[in-house]
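Message: A physicist's question: would you kindly supply an amino acid chain plus C-alpha cells?
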Amino acid sequence: MSIRATAFTVALTAALSLSFGVTPSFAANSQQSKMTDCNKQAGDKKGDDRKAFMKSCLSSAPAAASEPMTQQQKMTACNGQAADKKGDDRKAFMKSCLSNKG
C-alpha cells in the first residue's frame, strides 16, 4: 500500500471518528497500529497477492480485546469496513456489523 493510500486511510478514519465523537488520536493510532501489524505480516508478498492479504488483514477484527468495544468504536470500525459499499448493501452490512457482540 502506498504512503498516499496510507495517509488517506488515516485521514478518513480521523474524519469518521470526528463525526461520531471519537477523538481522532485514538482512531488514528489504532488504525496505524493495525496497518503496521498487517505490513509486518505481509512480508514479501507482492502485487495482487499483497493487496488481497492487506484488505483481509485490515478488515479483520482485532485480536481478542480485554474489554468489549464501545458503540462509538464499533461505529468507527464498521464504517471503515463499509467504505466500498453503497445503498441497501451498506445498510445491511452496517446493521449486521453493529449488532455483533464484542
Notes: The two ends are 29 Å apart (CA to CA). The chain has five helices and no strands.
